[in-house]
Amino acid sequence: MKAFFKQLYGNSSPIRERLFRIICSMASVACIFAFVMASIFGESLLATFPLLVAIVMLAIMVYVSYKKHLYEGSSIIIIVLMNMFFFPLSFFTSGGVNSGIAVWFVLGIVFVFMLSSGKLFYILLFTSLVTFVACYFVGFFYPELIIPLGDRATVFSDSAVTMLIVAITIGVIIRFQTRVYEDQHALSEQQKKQIEELSNARSRFFANMSHEIRTPINTIVGLNEMTLRSEELTDDIKENSLYIQSASKSLLSLVNDILDLSKMEAGSMKIIEGVYSPARLMREVINMTRVNAHQKNLEFNISITEKLPVSLNGDEMRIKQILLNLLSNAVKYTDKGSVTLRVTVEYPENARDEKDKMILTVQVTDTGIGIKKEDLKELFNNFVRFDANRNKGIQGTGLGLAISKQLSELMGGSITVDSVYKSGSTFTLTLPQEVIDGTETGDFAMAAKLDGSDENRYTKLFTAPDAQILVVDDNRMNRIVVQKLLRATKVHVDLADSGKEALNLIKQKRYD
Ligand code: ADP
Q: What is the pTM for the complete model shown?
């Protein structure tokens, strides 16, 4: 029996269906009770007959909804039968206004509100109200059509019993409805928590995986670098090594993007500020972009304000990441014409001393494929890439801009875009930066520093045979790579595979 009730009213059915069943069940209990009371008080068969039919109908409807899940159609049938047939019939066979019928009418209207929705609700509400009001009118003008209930005691008892039945019915329905909504709310809260936990676990997984993948890639990049440094390379080996270098860099940047994304999703992305030289930063990104622009025969214009301060405080690495992303996109999505980098600075009007924030604005303009107006609003979403057909050969994940935008916002700045489809785009990065040394850098004199260097040739900057370096890493390959890369500098390298071992070593020896 308990199992039967659970199946009938429990969580397994949709909420509206459960509500329908409970309303019908309560209505049939009410009708049974009313029928029994009417019989006890000796009301005529004509007065009790509609109740009997209603009980049977309601039972059939609960059964149909249970077996066939046709509760929507059943709801309409119930409302139409009750409000257009049984209640008006009762009105005329059970004493009209001198009975409890008005309260049944109220129950009929409550059913309309609870069981119907949309256009149908308005239709059913209107027809029910018209029917009930029509009963009153007809009853008033043609009193002879109403069969009286009998003596005063019957009238009073009918009214009282109806009032009690309907009040309890409505009360139970409301209580049940509240319970159902509370259950539903608890369930959705629980599901929300599960989804959050799942998402956190996923982010942690990606963060760990990306970290694990980066380690071997670094080994590949490092050891390949050793090959490239070798003096006796055949052209073929050098070419292969350069391909390995390029492929590993792509892989590394892909993994880094995924790692950044998962950090951002987990809310653990941190901005690490430090003092840096903006001129040096610009020089690095320009050097890297210049090679790519050159390969595609694109003009690369640079305009950097002489007012650029000598040193700023900010997250140099992240700013570089954003700039490289904007510049590499500009080159990637431009086939002919130019890419222009424009850097300006602006001091807010209330800036009093050098510690005040300065606004650094970097604009990257290209004469490339541009972005359609309707695509612009999705541009900064994760994994968004446009014009799949046209960009078939262009590598990318659609993560760069999403990450750049979030990074700029974490640093208190923003990225905006202006684009004309098929003509080109301008991306503008605006960042507030603290000024450490406000001396102007002056003429950027980029040209001299940019020309003529062979990107691929390793040049040893120094040797330091007396230097003592301690390399600490739990990954053996990482230690080997650092040791090998430093070999040409002749520095003395000690290796430690744990923090504990490193602490032991620094007690015995002074490291540089
Ligand atoms: P990716 O370049 O890896 O696909 P991004 O997030 O950097 O990812 O860019 C998302 C998309 O925005 C690109 O796939 C491209 O369709 C479009 N896009 C970005 N920069 C430009 C640009 N300078 N010109 C035209 N389209 C661009």
A: 0.60
